[in-house]
Structures are given as structure tokens and as C-alpha cells.
């Protein structure tokens, strides 16, 4: 479970770096943002399923 949070944080940091570095990498920045959001949503869904 912690691995998903780690991946989401790494993707978010990469996304933030992409925003700060170059306009030409805009497509990659948005892909990283989408991957980070999907990872967090998956984590939230799995967490709710685990509750009694």
C-alpha cells in the first residue's frame, strides 16, 4: 500500500519538475499528472474496500 503512495509522490515531483523545466515537455508533464492522479484514486479505492 505504501508503494502506491511512493509512486504517486514520485510522479507528482516529476510532474512539478516538468512544469518548471520546459514548455516542449508539456505532453509528458500531463501524462505524469494523470498517472499520479490515477495512482492516488486506486489507493483510495483499495483503502475503502479494505474497511469492514
Write the layout of secondary structure elements.
Blueprint: H1 2-21, H2 26-50
Protein described:
With 52 residues, this protein is mostly helical. The chain has one domain. 87% of the residues lie in helices and 0% in strands. It is built from 2 helices and no strands. Helix 1 (2-21) packs antiparallel against helix 2. The longest helix is centred in the C-terminal third of the chain and has 25 residues, at 26-50.
In sequence order, what are the helices and strands, one letter per element?
HH
> In one word, what is the shape?
elongated
How far from one another are the termini?
17 Å
Mean pLDDT: 75
Structural class: mainly alpha
Total number of beta strands: 0
Number of helices: 2
Assembly classification: single chain
Domain module count: 1
Helical content (DSSP H or I, runs of 4+): over 70%
Unreliable stretches: none
Radius of gyration equals 13 Å
